């Protein structure tokens, strides 16, 4: 990975200029990228500016992103009376 | 005493290397090593759960162990390793993942640190590091829009850290 002119802080609070892949684990950004997943055909831009936005074209639940999987898991827990 | 004895579960992520035990999370991250029949565990925030698991296992086996900073897993090393280790002990203590995790298993991290410090004869640098971390814990900002004072760390951790130095001194006397 290319060096940066600013300091990179990893999850443990150590600084480095040339971060490796291991340095990104557990950082705030790594978790953020995991959560806000968008696929090629489903972007926030499309959702906002699509002529069909009022129709609700976005197929919720079919994308299997982290957020949607969480919702699905909660629904199953509720169904079985665990939560 | 071998490194394979400390593997807490049957997961494939654990791997025994030449000198250290590693845990695979995208890459193999070093988790512990043995030196002079003493186990040293890297207090790494990237792999909180495995660190807590291995600590539980070490307590069960009744082995002498201490924690250390992940910086020492890097071959380049650290300039002042004693200072870095104590700083990292405090820094990990205020992380909510470690704070709750050690609390749940009723493990006293600070007692472990004071034991290590008295063994290495570096008790005098504890106070300096404590003061440094105290500033980080109590850092606050004021939101003028909603008139709320915001803290990065929770009330429980801040209160606990305030009376921590007293506990350290008691540990030293005992």
Break the fold down into its secondary structure elements and pairings:
The complex is a heterodimer of chains A (83) and B (174).
Chain A: E1 8-9, E2 15-16, H1 28-35, H2 44-49, H3 66-79
Antiparallel strand pairs in A: 1-2
Chain B: E1 14-16, E2 20-25, E3 27-35, E4 38-42, H1 48-61, E5 65-68, H2 81-93, H3 96-104, H4 109-120, H5 124-137, E6 140-143, E7 148-151, H6 155-162, H7 164-173
Helix pairs in contact in B: 2-4, 2-5, 4-7
- Count of beta strands of chain A: 2
Report how far the terminal alpha carbons of chain B are from each other: 29 Å
Structural class of chain A: mainly alpha
Number of domains of chain B: 2
Radius of gyration of chain A over all CA atoms, rounded: 18 Å
Which features characterize this protein?
heterodimer; A: 83 residues; mainly alpha; 2 strands; B: 174 residues; alpha+beta; 5-stranded mixed beta sheet; two-stranded antiparallel ribbon; 46% helix; globular
Structure characterization notes:
The complex is a heterodimer of chains A (83) and B (174). Chain A is mainly alpha-helical and 83 residues long. In chain A, 34% of the residues lie in helices and 5% in strands. Chain A has three helices and two strands, in the order ββααα. In chain A, strands 1-2 form a two-stranded antiparallel ribbon. In chain A, strand 1 and strand 2 (15-16) form a beta hairpin. Chain B has 174 residues and is α+β, with helices and mostly antiparallel strands. Chain B folds into two domains: 1-46 and 61-68, no CATH class; 78-174. Chain B is 46% helix and 20% strand. In chain B, the strands form two sheets. A five-stranded mixed beta sheet of chain B has the order 1-2-3-4-5. Chain B has a two-stranded antiparallel ribbon with strand order 6-7. In chain B, helix 1 (48-61) links the parallel strand 4 and strand 5. In chain B, helix 2 packs parallel to helix 5 (124-137). The longest helix of chain B has 14 residues, at 48-61. Chain B starts with 13 loop residues before the first strand and ends with a helix. In chain B, 26% of the residues are buried. Classes of the chains: A mainly alpha (83), B alpha+beta (174).
